[in-house]
């Protein structure tokens, strides 16, 4: 069965304290791995798509990387406005749906 | 440009009732997907429609149904509501069926009492 697991469930960082979020997946025929940010009461906001192992993408303080079994979202020198839930999702096989993980709730303390 | 719009934003229903949720995709987008997000969980896929045809269905009971209209807007219907149907219902739109970074709406918060 296809599975997406995110860790940790929650993470508290001091402003400026860099860290990484993990997304591990067991799917057949990965077509893409997606990172989304979700603020409370809002829909997910697209951040990155990664397609193949070794690929990296960056946006401001965020950098996403992909291996054959997991993806990391690195947050460098986070600010309080980076506080949100970060969701990982995969598309696999012949279907069009996303399989989401349960997310990592990030809190950045000033 | 208007994003994905969903209505209503909040809804309270009683067990056994029926509910209709609405979604207007980004202008020009022809595909709409519906997801259910229970508090503390990631979104779960319910349906995808493209050009008014169903292109995918998740593991939800037949109480859940959807349709897409000629203007590409969509409705999600849930019959015989259960307490467990309480969730944030998200609509996502994309230009075509398979695409990077689907754009999500802010969702409809459904509470079943």
What does the radius of gyration of chain A come to? Answer: 13 Å
The secondary-structure class of chain B comes to: mainly beta
User: Beta-sheet strand percentage of chain A?
Assistant: over 45%
Total number of beta strands of chain A? 11
Can you count the beta strands of chain B? 11
Low-confidence stretches of chain A: none
Helix content of chain B: under 10%
The oligomeric status of these chains comes to: heterodimer
Q: For the report, how would you describe the main beta sheet of chain A?
A: 6 strands, mixed
Distance between the termini of chain A: 41 Å
The SSE order of chain A reads: EEEEEEEEEEE
Q: How would you sum up the global shape of chain B? A: globular
Instruction: Report the radius of gyration of chain B as a whole number of Å.
Output: 13 Å
Strand content of chain B: over 45%
Order of helices and strands of chain B: EEEEEEEEEEE
Largest interface: A-B, 24 and 26 residues
Query: Kindly state the mean pLDDT of chain B as a whole number?
Result: 93
Biggest sheet record of chain B = 7 strands, mixed
- Poorly predicted runs of chain B: none
Helix count of chain A equals: 0
> What structural category do the secondary elements of chain A indicate?
mainly beta
Topology:
The complex is a heterodimer of chains A (110) and B (113).
Chain A: E1 3-7, E2 10-14, E3 19-26, E4 30-38, E5 45-50, E6 56-59, E7 62-66, E8 70-75, E9 84-92, E10 99-100, E11 104-109
Parallel strand pairs in A: 2-11
Antiparallel strand pairs in A: 1-3, 3-8, 4-5, 4-9, 6-7, 7-8, 9-10, 9-11
Chain B: E1 5-7, E2 10-13, E3 19-24, E4 31-37, E5 44-50, E6 53-57, E7 64-68, E8 74-78, E9 87-94, E10 103-104, E11 108-112
Parallel strand pairs in B: 2-11
Antiparallel strand pairs in B: 1-3, 3-8, 4-5, 4-9, 5-6, 7-8, 9-10, 9-11
